[in-house]
């Protein structure tokens, strides 16, 4: 029988739920500050602000990483760069509501990919939930009538697939197992910023960070600070704080409410009007991803539970899965 959640654990729920809300609003924030010409510039500025803080806070632990851990985290950083590129270009070319709901398919894609890699069959209930989510995305992108999905919708779908690759790589790469979460995130973000910096210097890749910054108004700077401080620094440190006071699974469950917040923010603040087909699709995505996550979590818990006669206490981990600094 699971132990009841402590009062301190319940107190930890509120900041984590706030992180989910902040991440849900990050798609609107990205749309507010980014254009097709400034995607790379905004990414360099956003994470260029964050990286020195992470390095300063975790300098001693960074120095303790082995060479293999540095290389593994650097490789993960390349995948992370791809995620942010797909997400940011996608957000520019679709609505904030669509972006937040389509990216939530990661919660369905990851168990599917994991089961394929391990040669394990998923329950029929999960496959039904996955089908519900995919049908929801199909309807969501047809809010104004049946048309081809936009380029932005397809980019967000690619970002969801890239997030799945990132999660599986973190779980399966021997070189990064046991690495400190803060150090691992810092090296990954450093690798991603290096990729953005190289790309932004190439001809035809848009405005430079300095030119984009010079053209920013007060509203643009407000969105950029929000993305840097709240959607990245605040979110990461709250996760680290909360997972030590509750459990990784509980933190993950609360963060899974992100698409709900994305839809709410997009409709209430961005004026997104998905139409009745889109609304039905949004509901199907939310129900399907929540159902699929629940089925996958139950299966994972059952697989990791030792027999009653040899049951031993579970060791808590200090890391949560997911994309750092959404």
Compute the average pLDDT.
Answer: 85
Q: Write down the overall geometry.
A: globular
Query: What is the C-alpha radius of gyration, as a whole number of Å?
Result: 20 Å
Structural class: mainly alpha
Strand content: under 5%
SS elements, strand count: 0
The end-to-end distance, rounded to whole angstroms, is 34 Å
Q: Low-confidence parts lasting 5 or more residues at pLDDT below 50?
A: 309-321
Helix segment tally = 14
Largest sheet features: none
Number of domains: 1
> Helix fraction?
over 70%
Element order: H for helix, E for strand: HHHHHHHHHHHHHH
Topology:
Layout lengths: L6 H27 L5 H19 L1 H5 L3 H26 L3 H8 L2 H13 L5 H17 L10 H22 L8 H20 L8 H7 L2 H26 L4 H8 L2 H11 L6 H30 L22
Helix pairs in contact: 1-5, 1-11, 1-12, 1-13, 2-9, 2-10, 2-11, 4-8, 4-9, 5-8, 5-13, 6-8, 7-14
Family: Belongs to the EamA transporter family.
Subcellular location: Cell membrane
Protein name: DMT family transporter
Give an overview of the whole structure.
About 75% of the residues lie in helices and about 0% in strands. With about 325 residues, the chain is mostly helical. It has one domain (about 5-305). Helix 2 crosses helix 11, helix 4 runs antiparallel to helix 8 (about 150-170) and helix 5 runs parallel beside helix 8 (about 150-170). It is globular. Residues about 310-320 have low confidence and may be disordered.
Quick synopsis:
The chain has 326 residues and is an all-alpha fold. 73% of the residues lie in helices and 0% in strands.
